[in-house]
Design brief:
The chain has twelve helices and 14 strands. It is an alpha/beta fold. The longest helix is centred in the middle third of the chain and has 14 residues, at 192-205. It is globular. It is found in: Cytoplasm.
Amino acid sequence: MSRPVTVLVVDDSPTMRGLITAALRRDPEIEVVGSAADPLEAREAIKRLNPDVITLDVEMPNMNGLEFLEKIMRLRPMPVVMVSTLTQAGAEVTVAALEIGAVDAIGKPAPGVPATVAFAELAEKVKAAGRSRVRARSDTPTAPPVDADYRPDPKHILAIGASTGGVEALLTILTGFPADCPATVITQHMPATFTKSFAARLDKVCTPQVSEAEDGAPVKPGCIYIAPGGETHLEVTGAVPRCRLIRTETVNGHRPSVDVLFDSVARSGKPMTGVILTGMGKDGARGLLAMREAGGRTLGQDEASSVVYGMPRAAFEQGAVERQLPLHRLRPAILDLCAANRADQTAA
């Protein structure tokens, strides 16, 4: 058995530190090596204990979690899992933290929700963080600009799936999309309150229109749709493609599920491209294979640039991925596959 993942718990609330510690100690593959009440204590504890992973509260005295995270990612990049309140303000800060470089996030227990339920996924998120590749943002190469002659195929549907590390990956790809980008549907594993904030953040920094998907919304070029977290899966349906939100059980432990989205696009009969990005587990592998078998083009993020090479690995090993590329090369490759001069390569 490999050594346990060592964790430092950082939260100003003694009660919350106790709940997080108890949730993590139930997993024999995790060792909580210490705790800290604020960033100043945490800084000394990091030096002394050298933990593999930090769980970090957003709101703390002396220095808030976001400021502390920025210092960590600049001076000593390491895996951080944010622990946030499930309020709108908490969600906005958490999305900013994921953009800075936090590996993942989980919500604190809402009133009336037992900590065992709220933190059910915490141990898996921490273990995935312990296996992740974290680097300073400046270490990531930038993608080349979009070709001025780029013309999208108006019938083309682009479907993207991501999980752990996906916020930063999606920002890298989508912030360079042109205003007339292909109709794009995305499932990113996130809690419900976080997806709305993430869509709003993307809408501010991207040229195309970005929104959280609504049931019945037309899927059209120049628009990017983010699957809502929590209670529904996102599908694409209809001769004139539209978003459909369905309330069914979790798939691969997730709702929304990447497989559900990819399967629906595979059935659409439209020209299509599927992309699977960083994330733990195997969600999306089967659906991406269905897209490829239906004539779609498929890409996967490579191991070296993935924060967690789980979902892309599973898809690649199943034969679902045509090409694996580093993150900075994915955007131009995606747009090339979705361009008008590629329309004849897939079913209309």
